[in-house]
Amino acid sequence: MSSTDEPASEPAAVAPIQAEHVEVAVIETREGYLAAVEAIAAGEGPIAIDAERASGYRYSQRAYLIQIFRRGSGTFLFDPPAIGDFAELNAVIAPEEWILHAASQDLTCLREIGLDPTRLFDTELAARLAGLPRVGLGAVVEDLLGIHLAKEHSAADWSTRPLPQSWLVYAALDVELLVDLREALAGVLERDGKTDIAEQEFASVLTRDFVIVRQEPWRRLSGVHAIRGGRNLAVARELWQARDTYAREIDTAPGRLVPDSALVAAARVLPETKRDLAALKEFTGRASRSQIDRWWNAIQTGMASDDFPVLRQVGETMPPPRVWSDKNPEADKRLKTARAAVTEVATEKSIPVENLLTPELLRRLAWSPPVPADAETIASTLREFGAREWQLDATAQVIADAFVEASQPVEDAPDAAS
Questions:
Q1: CA spacing 20 to 30 A to 173: which of 133, 217, 264, 410?
Q2: 320-329 pLDDT, tens per residue?
Q3: Tens digits of per-residue pLDDT, 255-303?
Q4: Residue 61 per-residue DSSP state
């Protein structure tokens, strides 16, 4: 085929270019911090705030960078480990509305350093309630403000010092657009009659404790369900605890020391000697050999234990829904009927079904419904579970009707001869 016969090629896609930004500095001293607090106090309007952690790199979930933007004040980036106490800043900004994107991810580390909001606007949650198809910060900014926000450093190790300038610009942009974004989202919520819904959701976020305390955290090992035998589980438990202790000591993410798959492999094989453990090819990780004594001691402790974990955790009030049809057919029918009805309501309101009513609450209700299962008692039960009033208004009657429908006997098919 000659060059003249070749089909015209599509023009190459041009990647959006991040707008240039002035050089950003990190505030690391008490003097600089106190001066920034004064500047922030002199500003006006809500406080846009964000935090950067080092998830996947460090054991702790502490904040390694705090970003704040306020109109009339500017942008400020703080180094929490260097500054320490943020009481003065909190005294200035606590009465104001704080704007965060996905507040549930940052509130714990903010509270850890003494920053605790009393009023909140969560732009990620607002985007969900507004029915936007994408709720990541970059996507929402692009959809509503028409600005491309690069997110290439979202998974960076923010404990790095000094922080590269490109990372600091990324961090600054994360807050500099939040006030404009909040105003755009508030307009969408107002237009759709969802302002009160959003306010209830924001208030609920402020009351929650996002620190998860698990009774047997070692059961979160990926692949632990493949382990059979009480002694093997005891070894898995001891290996997990040994890794967790060491990770905490050196403030490193546990999986960066020895991955879950390595611990599970050792627990399944039960090597008889330290040499066997070292020779186990599945036992990998940067600390798998340098800390071999630690892991071998854990295996020996597990082998010698007479406190064997049960194969299945006790205390589960409900089995997984996939087995309800066998274990509790009535509950299974209630769940499926109510879930379809609630999904229909969510579609009508352009709200994700998990935000209209969390699947866990619906499962608990279907497994053990109140008596009588009318709208009033269902609303009361959901309120005890933590549902908000707008959720009760939207779902209580719908669920009650679905439960009635689910309780009806299946009618016989009409006689073909009639």
A1: 133
A2: 999 999 999 9
A3: 999 999 999 999 999 999 999 999 999 999 999 999 999 999 999 999 9
A4: -
Which residues contact residue 171 at a Cβ distance below 8 angstroms, ignoring those fewer than 6 apart? Answer: 24, 50, 52, 65, 67, 77, 153
- Long-range own/partner contacts, residues 270-273 (CB < 8 A, 24 or more apart): 270/231, 270/232, 270/235, 270/299, 270/303, 271/299
- Cβ within 8 Å of residue 162, ≥6 positions away: 26
* Tokens 């719908």 sit on residue: 398
Contact 189, 126 (CB under 8 A): yes
Confidence class for position 379, pLDDT limits 50, 70, 90: very high
Asked if residue 27 has pLDDT above 50, the reply is yes
124 lies in the same domain as 198? yes
Query: Residue 4: how many CA atoms within 13 Å on its side-chain side?
Result: 0
Q: Are residues 175 and 45 part of one domain? A: yes
DSSP secondary structure, 5-51, as one string: GSPPPPPPPPPPPPPP-----EE-SHHHHHHHHHHHHTSEEEEEEEE
Both tokens assigned to 240: 């997990």
Is 251 within 8 Å of 58 (Cβ atoms)?
yes
| Residues near 59 by beta carbon (within 8 Å), at least 6 away in sequence | 247, 248, 250, 251, 252, 253, 254
pLDDT value of position 411:
64
Chosen domain end from 207, 233, 267: 207
Of 245, 242, 248, which is closest to residue 266 (Cα–Cα)? 242
**How many domains is the chain partitioned into structurally?**
3
Encode pLDDT of 227-252 as tens digits: 989 999 999 999 999 999 999 999 99
DSSP 8-state symbol, 96: S
Q: Among the three residues 304, 336, 366, which one is the final residue of a domain in this structure?
A: 304
pLDDT for residue 21:
85
- pTM of the model as a whole: 0.88
User: What is the C-alpha separation between 400 and 418, in angstroms, rounded?
Assistant: 35
Structure tokens at 96: 């104001």
For the stretch 36-51, pLDDT in tens is 999 999 999 999 999 9
Longest dimension (CA), the chain: 92
114 and 178 both lie in a single domain: yes
Looking at residue 2, the DSSP 8-state letter turns out to be -
Burial state string for 359-394 with b = 16 or more CB within 10 A and e = fewer than 16 = eebbbbbbbebbeebebeebbebbeeeebbebbbeb
Together in a domain, 39 and 168 = yes
Q: What is the DSSP letter of 413?
A: P
